[in-house]
Write a structure and sequence with these properties.
The protein is about 40% helix and about 25% strand. By secondary structure, it is an alpha+beta fold.
Length: about 190
């Protein structure tokens, strides 16, 4: 999948002019690529468009105008775009009550290593979480995952007639969710380019 380029980010005044037009489309795409996994975890699959939108919004929110700072944002976020034969996703732990959040973050250590995509043909594609987001005492509320498919697994995933689900198998949190067909078709489109 192609990386975001600096010229796509747009200068702030230009982005402000087009933002009201493109933002609803990106929100719709984000909703399509987001799966709720149980009561307080969700994942959002990432692609070129979602990352470009994230960069533009970060530059806007932080009023970044310095070229080198914008370049740094692009380099940082480009690392979330999947490579060939991969999907990438952001895992969110979403608990609004702070006391409950503190309790759960201690119980969900290692959650980033407990997420897989299970294929109907029996293949399991484990997610690989970014290191440094869990300690011995707690985990982060956001994790970046990468799912790398073998050739056989990729063939299975690219067949929309075979089901695929996202599974979390953690000692303190277990859930599975079928990837809806509309989401699956978009993910297939992203993988094949």
């Amino acid at each position: 999948m192609e990386r975001v380029t600096l010229d796509e980010v747009l200068p702030l005044p230009e982005y402000e002019r087009v933002r009201s037009r493109i933002r609803p489309l990106l929100i719709e795409l984000r909703n399509l690529l987001r799966l709720s996994l149980g009561s307080y975890i969700s994942i959002g699959f990432e692609n070129h468009e979602t990352i470009l939108h994230q960069i533009r919004e970060m530059v806007r929110a932080e009023s970044i105008t310095d070229f080198d700072a914008v370049k740094q944002e692009v380099e940082t976020y480009n690392s979330l775009i999947p490579e060939a034969k991969q999907l990438s996703a952001t895992l969110f732990i979403e608990i609004s009550d702070l006391d409950e959040l503190r309790r759960q973050l201690g119980m969900l250590i290692g959650i980033e290593h407990a997420v897989s995509i299970c294929l109907a043909g029996g293949g399991m594609v484990p997610g690989k979480g970014e290191s440094g987001r869990s300690t011995d005492q707690r985990t982060s509320t956001i994790h970046y995952l990468r799912f790398s498919f073998s050739d056989d697994q990729l063939v299975q995933f690219l067949d929309p007639d075979q089901s695929a689900e996202v599974v979390i198998n953690h000692p303190n949190y277990s859930v599975s969710k079928l990837i809806p067909s509309e989401t699956r078709l978009r993910l297939i489109q992203d993988i094949i380019g």
